[in-house]
Amino acid sequence: MVNATDRPVVTIGSVQFSIGSMDALTQWHVARRLSPILAEMSGAFKKMAHSALFQDLPEPTPEQVAAATQVAQEPLPTDEEASAVLQRDENERALEMFEILAKPITTAISTMSDADSEYIIKKCLAVCRRKTGNTWASVIDRNSGVMMYQDIDMRTMITLVAHVVKENLGDFFPTSL
After folding, report:
1. What is the pTM of this model?
2. Which residues of 105-177 form beta strands (DSSP E)?
3. N- or C-end of the chain: fewer Cβ atoms within 10 A?
4. CA separation for the pair 126, 26 (Å, rounded)
5. Contact, 141 vs 148, CB < 8 A?
6. What is the pLDDT of residues 86-100, one digit of tens each?
7. CB 172 within 8 A of CB 28
8. What does DSSP assign to residue 12?
């Protein structure tokens, strides 16, 4: 089977997968089928960049400066307390990003035909290999399109597709991926 040492390798759960290269014509056909989704993502990213969460903060009021000065004189929070605050802020940003991105992307995906969707998935999975013992085996049968491993769930499948798209089309759509 294919030696994955010259390919990017990703670990999903406890399983290693190598991400291969598509030929140029397949890249073209996958890119054109993905273009509506990528266009929606681009618009969503622009919206996200203009959202209030990512704008510069206004100048602080004198009251805010006084409050900050008072806080600065108090003992520093413990690492655990600081981590909890940062995690909360990070979760809030992630939720806002999800809310901005989810609707346009899911709308674009839902309007894609089953044939286009399956084309993208099967072409992406066709360049993936799974490490089984000391060998690398195809994830999908290129001729029949049948998945070779029944334990590959939708999350793993979509994660692999995303890695293949990034690896093969990242230079073509540099601002979208």
Report:
1. 0.67
2. 128-132, 135-138
3. N
4. 11
5. yes
6. 666 677 777 777 777
7. no
8. E
